[in-house]
Each structure stands twice: as C-alpha cells, then as structure tokens.
Design brief:
heterotrimer, A mainly alpha (290), B alpha/beta (273), C mainly alpha (256), A: 290 residues, mainly alpha, MetI-like fold, two-stranded antiparallel ribbon, two-stranded antiparallel sheet, 11 helices, 4 strands, globular, B: 273 residues, alpha/beta, Rossmann fold, 2 domains, six-stranded mixed sheet, four-stranded antiparallel sheet, 10 strands
C-alpha cells in the first residue's frame, strides 16, 4: 500500500515538473520557436501556440460557446469521454473474444498456428490502422433487414481490430506457457484437451493475458479516438479533439480539455486492468514472488 | 516367439522393449535396446545408471508418456496405455511440478478433481494424504511458500492420491540437499510400506537406490541395456542406522561394481555418492 | 542440407498457402457476391489503382517515411540516453517510470492538433514529435530492462577482476542490454510508421500517406484508398525489415 502511494505521489510530482517545464520554456523561449538547420526543434511560445496552464484549466470550467445554456467545457468533454470509453469497451470485448478463440484454435491445431501466426506477427508490423477511414465509410450504407450499420459500430470494429492482435498473441503465449512437466502430468492423469485447458492452460495464461489485456485496452482506445477523428462520429472524444483544435486560433486553451480526457481514458483503462489483476492474485504468484 | 499372457500378479512387465529416437538428419539414437524387466506387486525397484542409459526413458515408457519402438509393456496385465487411462499408477518427477495457483491441499486434490471424485471423498482423502506426508499445517499454503523438500512431499502425496498400486518416480529427490534427501528417503520407505504400492524409482545415487530398494536394476548407456540386477535384502524395517550397517555397504559395493564393470574397480569405501 | 530446405519449406508453405487462398477468396467473394467497392474492393481493382497512383504514392511515401524515420531516430536516442541515466540515478528512474507507464496506455496521437498549433500548420515537426514520443516508450522500457539484466555472477566476476565502472559497462552491461534494445527498436519501428500515418488524420500538413488515404476515402475512391493502404503496409514492412537487418549485423552471432 505504501508503495502504491509512493508511486502515485511520484507520478503527481512528475506531472508538476512537466507543467513547470512548460511554463519555464514559455517564459524564456523565443516567440518564434527554435530552428536548427531548417528543422523546427522547439515550439513557438506565444499565448496562441502555448497557452498558460492556468488558462487551460479556467477555459475548461467555462461554457463551450457563447450561446445561451451552453454546458461547461469539462462536462462536455467528460460526456464525450464516457461515450468513447463505451465504444472502446465494446471493441475490446469483441476483439478479446475473437483473439482468445483464435489463440485456442492455434494451440489446438499446430497447422493453424503455422499458417496463421506469421500473418499475425506480420500484421503487428504493418499500419493496419490506416484502414480506419475505409471501415468508417461503411457507416450509414450497410443495412441488413432491420439492422442498420451505424457509425459508432465502425468505430467499435476498428477498436476491436486493434485490440485483437495483442490478445491473440498474448493468449497463445499463455496457453503454450505450461512446462512439459505439467503437460505430462495432465497426460498421466489421462486428462483430455478440455480438462487440460480448464485446469492447466487457462490458469497458466493469466500472467500473459493481463499485460495483453492492458495493451489491448490501450489499443482499443487509440483505435476509438483515431476512428472517431476519421468518421467525425458525433458524441465521441475524437470529434471534440478536432472540433476544439479548429477553434485554436481564437480560443487556444480550449483544445487541451478533450486531450486531457483522452489521457484520462487511457489511464482508466489501464487502472481497470490493474484492478482485475489484483482480483486474481493466486494466478500471478510467480509474477509477484519473482 | 510366442509370449504367454502376462500374469496380472506383476505390477510391471516389460518385454524386449526398445526405443529408438530419430534425430533430424536421418540418424538415430538407441536409448533402450531389448530391455526386459518384471516388477512384482508391492516391490520397490530402482533403476540406476549413468546419464544416457535410458532409465528415465524406460520410466516414461511404463507411464505411457512415450511409446516404445519395439516390445511390449504391461502394467497390472493391461497395456501401458490402458493402464494410464485407468489411472493404474501415480507419478512424481524430478521437480515437484506443483501448480503455483493451487494451495498444497488443492494440488494434492488435482487428480481426484480431474476424475470427478465427489467433494466429500476428495476432502477426506486430501486430509489423509497431508497427514501421511506430515504437512497438515501447510494445507492452505501456496507452493512458493514451501521449501524444495516440502514441495516434493506434496508431489508424492499427489502421486498417491488415487491409491495406485504402482508409483513411478523419476529422480524425485535429485534436486534436494543431502540431509533433506535422506529424510525423504526414510519417509518414502515408510509410505511405500504403508500403502503397499510397487515402486519404480529412477536415481543416479547408489546409496539411495540401495537404501530404498528390494532390487536395484543397473543399466549401461548407448545403447541402454540392463547390465545387472542386484537383490538387496536388508529387511522390511529400514531406519537411519541401516546406512551404517555392513550389509548396506556390501550392497552399495555390489551395485557400484556392477556399474563400473567396464572400468578399473574403484577403491572400496570411497565416493559413496 | 536437404533436411533444412525441407524444414524451411514446412515453415513457409502453410502461411504462403493461407495468404494465396485468402487473396483468391477475397477476389471470388467480391466478384461473386457483388460486394460494393466501399465495403471491400477487389484485389485486382486495387492493383490497377496502384499502378495509376504511383506518381503520387512515391512522394507521399517519402514524406511519411522521412517523418517516421526522424521521429524514430530522435525518440530512440533520447530513450536510450534516458535509460542509461535512469539506470544510474534512482530519482530519474522513479520520476520517469510513472510518466512512461502513462504514455504507454494513452492515445498520444491525440496531441497532434495542439502540436500543430504549437509548431505551425506548415511544419513537419508535430508529426515527428508524435512519432518520437510514441517510439520513446518501448525503447526506454526495454533498454532499462536490459541494463538491469546484468547477472550477479558477471558483476562479481568483474569485481574480482577489479574492473572500473566503465569497463563493467563496456564488457558486461551494454553487450548484455543490446538484445533488449533491439527488442524495443523492433516494436518502435512499426509504431513509428503507424503513428506517422495516423497523426495525419488529425490535420496539419497534408503531404503524406495518411492524408492521401483520408482524401481518397472522402472522395469515394475506395480502390485508390486501398492502394495507398498497400503503400503504408510496404512502408511498415520496410521499416521492420531494416531494423531486423541492423540487429543481425550488430549482434554478429556466429552460425546465424
């Protein structure tokens, strides 16, 4: 418990240090930024380019725009964040289920592993998120009976797509992690594939699944934000990031609120996974004692 | 050659078994060559020999963790495979191989759990076994909280869970320090006497083999063959004092000489480990 | 010799077959089921477009590739130096680690719009900064892990030899950490391309692959968009293969 508080404290301290660095550079840095050999190395320091941190906070407490009844910025971005977090969760759920199922298939059949795994690994090195604008174009066009494809579903598909890879690879490594001694023990008990899975492979996968889930959750959120930017799907945080940035020339401090929310979303996702890990201590004993 | 039906009286019946491993490039290694061995019910038999003599391979063949390339193996009159499916034996390896997420009690319970033994009977059996290996205070501990010797005792309790008539043990005390090892040997003698199970025990320690066994099977490497079988008649009750008796030293010497047949006979009384 | 060829074949054949089958199935599905291009264009249509857009594709590839490369180099250098410092000074380690852990789970590309206002809309720098930050995480984490990986027996050995700190670093710590650095760089090389492309979705200078993909999609020129995606995939593979090649050259393991 002490260690947790200590880490949180140091984390807060490093945020304060970053803020001080921001203000210090803004105070002493040249207004036009720093160029070196034609490369722009450091940003401009005008209020337009780098607003004071206090201004960002104050702007977040003020209404979104001058129209009557406009909600404060922080409420607007928080609502958008909750909506995006929901979409990302749907994506993470779908991606995890497909990823784990594929990992089970690969663990069960060696041929499936040798055919699929190279593609999985290759796909990790390839910018598949570039497909986002294309999947987004499904929105409002696909209709199967009463079911209509909505834009947020495209966003969830992209999130699922990104979350899927770490889950599949992590689950496969976890399922294959038991030592020969344990698989032979299972064989000596005449335990079939299903029982070995339940009693040995799944519990042994937990230390691999948790980091995969953290990575998958982070990917799902990145996918959601990027997809929302590509779709301009209303209600999400990605849309607000772009929208508020476009008012940058007149209202520079406003753009930081949705970004802060996006950061918080990532931290919440990581926190939830960490909490999940705390619920499963018995499956992580090796990890803890190591 | 006609082979008579194996008598169900013997715990293990190995007949003319060979195991040839193919190594990738068209070559092969003969791990076991025409090995025959019978272990009577309730008998304690050790397999001893230098590394590469196929003693572990033989044990794995009996356990049906591997399949012979020639010959036949019967366990209590059934094929090795059928014996595995019927859970005719319990097994313990060099490392305890406990599941780290299960408590001591749950690890011992594992085979019973896997074979759908009712909860009440499971709990009762686990209690008996924990008493038997003297770990009653550690039932709720996790394996990483135990010493190596305690972990190995849990593994032995686990191998006894379904009261098998045959115990297969592959250097179970190999990783333990000498003092723990001797204590564990004494416990194993007691346990095997109490349960009446036959034991096939792989080791590379001569005193260990002599202390534990009714018969010591001495094997030679490349290809793995049985070189000699030494009958040890030290009686049923084997206490710590046995290790200092003349009969014990005589048996140790006999096994050592069988092991070193191809070399100059070593000086007596040295290198007891 | 023949055995190695056969085992190589056995490793290569299933994925290649699966790839060809999927490609054929893709083509057949699109043609037979009459799937609209906005959903999925046929591979042949993409290939045709690829030939047509080549003059636009190459400069876009170079623009995005340059951003990814500069960001990758800058981010990696900072990360390696940072890890070296953090492995020596615990206070740096304790301050940087939570920030790195946070960056790892946060959508860094979201910073693109404000970086664009900070550096100006005509500047290439914002995308490079994004790449550098994204790349920093895996390189820093893995390098630090590698630097900590010194086996106690090696440290004791060097102590027994009365080796200096610098000698310890040169003979034990750095060579031992190198494989870890490359693990980080391998991850970073793919991330660099991905983030360079995605950063373009958030506005800023419109000369790279990312903007080409969005504008083609916006104009309903779907096969063209897929052709640019193909270019993006090429760039990703190129970056990854280059890092792998450098790793092989540096580690010089005999017999490999």
């Amino acid at each position: 418990m002490m260690r947790l508080w200590r880490r949180l404290g140091l984390g807060a301290l490093s945020i304060v240090l970053l803020a001080l660095l921001w203000e210090a550079y803004k105070a002493v840095g040249p207004a036009g930024g720093v160029d070196m050999a034609g490369l722009q190395l450091l940003p401009r320091t005008t209020d337009l380019a780098m607003p004071h941190i206090a201004d960002m906070v104050i702007r977040a407490l003020e209404p979104v725009n001058s129209s009557a009844g406009s909600a404060p910025v922080w409420i607007a971005v928080l609502l958008a964040g909750v909506s995006s977090l929901g979409t990302a969760s749907v994506g993470l759920l779908i991606g995890s289920v497909i990823g784990v199922l594929l990992a089970l298939l690969m663990q069960r059949f060696r041929l499936a592993e040798s055919a699929v795994l190279p593609w999985l690994v290759l796909s990790q090195t390839v910018p598949l998120i570039a497909l986002a604008p294309l999947i987004v174009s499904w929105g409002g066009r696909v209709q199967i009976g009463a079911f209509e494809w909505e834009r947020w579903m495209s966003v969830a598909v992209i999130a699922a797509y990104l979350a899927f890879f770490p889950m599949a690879v992590g689950a496969l490594r976890g399922l294959q992690s038991p030592d020969a001694i344990h698989t032979e023990l299972m064989r000596s008990y005449a335990a079939g594939w299903w029982k070995s899975l339940l009693y040995l492979r799944l519990p042994a996968s937990v230390p691999f699944l948790l980091p995969a889930l953290r990575l998958g959750a982070a990917s799902a959120i990145i996918g959601t934000v990027v997809a929302e930017v590509s779709t301009g799907a209303k209600g999400g945080i990605g849309r607000l990031i772009i929208e508020y940035a476009q008012s940058g020339s007149s209202d520079p401090a406003k753009a930081y609120a949705p970004i802060a929310v996006a950061v918080v979303m990532g931290l919440i996702a990581a926190g939830v996974v960490a909490a999940l890990g705390l619920l499963l201590p018995r499956y992580r004993r090796n990890e803890i004692s190591a | 050659m006609s082979i008579p039906a194996p008598s169900s009286a013997s715990a293990v019946d190995v007949r003319g078994v060979s195991r040839v491993f193919r190594t990738g490039k068209g070559q092969s290694v003969t791990a076991l060559d025409d090995v025959s061995l019978t272990v009577a019910a309730g008998q304690f038999v050790s397999l001893i020999g230098p590394s590469g003599c196929g003693k572990s391979t033989l044990l794995r063949l009996i356990a049906d963790l591997d399949t012979p390339t020639g010959g036949e193996i019967h366990v209590f009159g059934k094929t090795a495979r059928q014996a595995r499916l019927n859970q005719a034996y319990g097994i313990a390896f060099q490392s305890a191989g406990l599941l780290p997420w299960r408590t001591v009690a749950a690890n011992i319970e594992l085979p019973l759990h896997l074979h759908n033994v009712p909860r009440a009977r499971r709990a009762e059996r686990v209690r008996e076994l924990i008493e038997l290996v003297g770990l009653a205070d550690f039932a709720a501990s996790f394996p990483d909280q135990l010493s190596g010797g305690m972990q190995q005792r849990v593994a032995i309790a686990r191998s006894l869970a379904e009261s098998p008539g045959l115990l297969l043990m592959d250097e179970p005390f190999g990783a333990l320090d000498e003092m723990t090892r001797e204590r564990m040997q004494a416990e194993l003698v007691r346990i095997s006497a109490e349960t009446g199970a036959a034991v096939v025990f792989v080791t590379h320690s001569i005193p260990e083999a002599v202390f534990l066994s009714d018969r010591v099977v001495v094997m030679s490497p490349r290809p793995g063959r049985i070189r000699a079988i030494v009958d040890v008649s030290l009686g049923e009750v084997r206490g710590e004092l046995l290790r200092e008796e003349a009969g014990f030293f005589a048996a140790v010497t006999e096994v050592r000489e069988a092991l070193h047949l191809d070399q100059a006979a070593p000086a007596r009384g040295m290198d007891l480990r | 010799m023949r055995a190695t060829i056969r085992s190589n074949l056995r490793a290569v054949l299933p994925p290649v077959l699966l790839g060809l089958l999927s490609l054929a199935a893709w083509q057949a599905l699109v043609v037979l089921a009459d799937i609209q291009p906005y959903l999925l264009p046929a591979p042949t249509a993409i290939a045709t477009q690829l030939g047509l857009v080549m003059p636009v594709l190459v400069p876009a590839l170079i623009a995005t590739g340059t951003n990814a490369l500069l960001g990758l180099v800058a981010g990696s250098v900072i990360a390696i130096v940072g890890a070296l410092i953090a492995s020596r000074l615990w206070i740096v380690d304790e301050l940087v680690t939570p920030v790195v852990a946070a960056i790892a789970v946060v959508p860094i590309v979201a910073l693109a719009p404000v970086l664009t206002t900070m550096f100006g809309a005509t500047s290439e720098t914002p995308r490079r900064v994004i790449v550098a930050i994204v790349v920093f995480v895996p390189v820093f984490v893995n390098t630090l892990r590698g630097l900590r990986q010194v086996l106690p027996v090696h440290r004791d050995l060097m102590r027994a030899y009365n080796a200096s700190n610098w000698q310890l670093s040169r003979t034990v710590t750095i060579p031992g950490a190198l494989p870890y650095v490359f693990t980080g760089l391998n991850i970073a090389s793919s991330l660099a391309v991905i983030s360079a492309i995605v950063a373009e979705y958030f506005g800023g200078l419109q000369n790279g692959l990312g903007s080409r993909i969005t504008s083609a999609a916006a104009n309903s020129a779907y096969p063209r968009a897929w052709a640019y995606v193909f270019g993006a995939i090429l760039l990703g593979v190129l970056f990854y293969a280059t890092t792998l090649a450098i790793e092989r050259a540096v580690s010089r393991r005999p017999g490999r």
